[in-house]
Design brief:
The chain has 467 residues and is of the alpha+beta class. It is built from 20 helices and twelve strands.
Length: 467
């Protein structure tokens, strides 16, 4: 890149700000593609792309920018953009000396409003900023990075999506893929202008699809071994209604999900998670794992919906994982009728439920004890007692009378539950007795599936109807 009055390091150095980092990675991609071009030449190239190929449709990013300014004709949009950034680079725009709000560098600072940055206050929204400034004060490098952001994004449901990770290489991988696809789209002369549209119309599904890409394609998780967290910002800076929704995938959820998608668990996990897609327009449709389709019978005919269509439906499992809600009840309902590798559920409880491994091991031992005789009456009685346990006292009574006492009657030398097990792993302070109960029921059902025991058990409606 040619010498210019600019700090080249701060054009691409990670800052922690999602928009500045996306713009920086776009610049890095373009620099690798055309290393002999100056930053101003890249700005001109992208201005022509924005105006000629995208019809200046950057309204979701900037309000009344040089590109989106309705009063400017096509050529003027480009010339005014080049003029502004040329003045910015050469410190001819109005500035003050200070520390940049994003990079922290002590340098010349310029006003950043909704016309040249994303989701910031300006004009009548001066109360957004310290000392009622007309915009946050940023370095020229940060403002240049904001200009390149659109190339590193995708559109979901008419809004823009940006993914940010605590691991810079993950964010970089996402941005590079988007730049590559956005430039490819321009080269194919498609009628649809602007940022590429995601194949997913649901942000939660799009985020988990990107996790799949990280795990399988980039292989960053396996190589890095650092905990990975992700945030998806779904936003618009359009007109009088700027808005952003943030979807957060914590590192523990990422770790759990990466375990589920391993070879030995993938089939069971896909069956479980894909059965939880839902579309109000397809009520009653059921997932068929053999065809990987949702099927709905209408007037004697079977309407089949493939993954390419239902992948944009709402998925309750993804939704709950992102909102921090427990999916243990979903595992319980699933276990009543479906065999599943119980290590998936164990991984969930260890990573997200923070359950001790010793607790899980003891629960499995209790389930083995209940099912060892394969006596239908014993198993039915146990599940009904657990199903009806509505407080910790009822669960304790079941364990003491139904398991400990029964084990003693059978003259077994080894206690099924020792005092240490009882106080340290089953009922320690702060432990959820409901999770202990639900995990025990799940373990019993999975043991029944393993033993091919088909036992019809009537359940209380309350548990079946819980969300």
């Amino acid at each position: 890149m040619k010498n210019e009055n600019i700090n080249k390091e701060w054009l691409i150095k990670p800052t922690g700000d999602p928009f500045a980092d996306v713009g920086g990675y776009v610049i890095e991609y373009l620099q690798q593609r055309e290393p002999d071009k100056s930053i101003l030449e890249l700005i001109e190239d992208i201005a022509k792309l924005y105006v000629h190929s995208w019809d200046a449709k950057l309204n979701a990013f900037f309000l009344n920018s040089k590109i989106t300014q309705a009063a400017f004709k096509t050529d003027k949009k480009i010339s005014e953009t080049i003029k502004y950034f040329s003045n910015l680079i050469n410190n001819k725009e109005q500035s003050v000396k200070g520390h940049c709000r994003l990079s922290g560098q002590n340098t010349y600072l310029f006003q950043a409003g909704r016309d040249n940055s994303i989701l910031s206050g300006s004009g009548t929204f001066v109360n957004f900023h310290h000392f009622f400034q007309e915009g946050i004060m940023l370095s020229k490098e940060m403002l240049i990075r904001m200009y390149f952001v659109p190339l590193g994004t995708v559109s979901i449901q008419g809004r823009i999506a940006v993914i940010k990770s605590n691991i810079h290489e993950v964010t970089k991988h996402y941005v590079f893929e988007n730049v590559r696809n956005n430039l490819h789209k321009v080269g194919t002369n498609t009628e649809d202008v602007g940022v590429i549209k995601s194949e997913f119309s649901n942000p939660a599904n799009a985020l988990f699809s990107f996790v799949d890409d990280v795990i399988y394609k980039a292989k960053l998780y396996n190589e890095n071994q650092q905990p990975i967290s992700l945030s998806l910002l779904h936003f618009t800076n359009f007109g009088a209604s700027p808005e952003v929704t943030v979807y957060i995938l914590p590192a523990l959820v990422f770790r759990f999900y990466s375990i589920c998608t391993r070879g030995e668990y993938l089939k069971d996990w896909n069956y479980f998670v894909r059965s939880h897609y839902y579309n109000s327009g397809q009520k009653g449709a059921l997932y068929n794992p053999k065809s990987d389709c949702f099927e709905l019978e209408k007037k004697g005919n079977i309407n089949s919906t493939s993954f390419e269509d239902y992948k944009s439906w709402t998925n309750f499992i993804y939704k709950k994982l992102l909102s921090g809600e427990s999916i243990l009840k979903e595992f319980l309902r699933w276990s009543r009728k479906h065999k599943m590798n119980i290590k998936i559920i164990e991984a969930y409880q260890i990573n997200i439920g923070q359950m001790k491994k010793e607790t899980i091991q003891k629960i499995k031992q209790m389930a083995d004890f209940i099912t060892q005789s394969e006596n239908e009456d014993v198993i039915k009685k146990s599940i009904r007692a657990l199903d009806g346990a509505r407080n910790p006292a009822m669960l304790r009574r079941f364990i003491i009378k139904g398991l400990i006492a029964e084990n003693y009657k059978n003259n077994n030398e080894e206690p099924i539950v020792s005092l240490e097990d009882y106080t340290n792993y089953l009922f320690p302070d702060g432990n959820s007795w409901q999770e202990i109960r639900d995990m025990l029921i799940i373990a019993i059902y999975q043991k029944m599936h393993e033993l091919n025991l088909n036992i019809e058990i009537e359940l209380e409606e309350e548990l079946e109807n819980q969300n």
